[in-house]
Amino acid sequence: MNTLLQFAELVLHIDKFLGVFIHQYGAWVYAVLFLIVFCETGLVILPFLPGDSLLFIGGAFCATGEMHLELLIFLLLAASISGNSLNFAIGKAIGPKVFNTHIPVLERFLDRAALQKTHDFYEKHGGKTLVLARFIPVVRTFAPFVAGVSAMRFTRFQFFNVAGALFWVLLLVLLGYFFGNIPFIRQYLNVIVLVGIGAAIVPILIGALWKLLRGKSSAGAVHKPGNNR
Prior knowledge:
Belongs to the DedA family. It is found in: Cell membrane. The chain crosses the membrane at residues 27-49, 159-179, 191-210. It is built from eleven helices and no strands. The chain is mostly helical. The chain has one domain (2-188). α5 packs across α8 (139-149) and α7 runs parallel beside α9.
């Protein structure tokens, strides 16, 4: 519980954390930001790292002269592109092996038809998914992994991987650069972070709940006595 509280404190006050780190360790902050973004996008087990906040606050520190804008953008682009590429490679490597297993216990839970549907979806809509997922916490970590599992074409994946990284990094870093040091935004940054996370996650939860309810209602309609022949 204490660990969760400490992590929440870090996410909500990431500006103070970065400020202290810069003053104590200087240029090492670039390595830390690179590592966090790389791990969030590259390791499917670490979807909770605060990527959006770091990009925005990094831009704000660039505006005060404490960090270099061009260097930060270059490193974050490298981290996000290489992280997604690693995640894709992991999904592509383990996905077929898992779904082609003949272990009875696993076969009961794995749906090969669903894998084929996922592959078809990513062939049609994978580009939009990869770009938009960059702005949705948790989803941006799983999207490249699922693209790999579904065997999305590598060249198509990389095109949208790079496009999404450019859009994500440039937008958030430059927003932080131009607006991150406005007193009102600085004062209520933790609230803005929470609103941003909520705005990204709540629609997904509502959509999932709606699909679940529709599925249940459809199943109920099929099993009504009047529908049986």
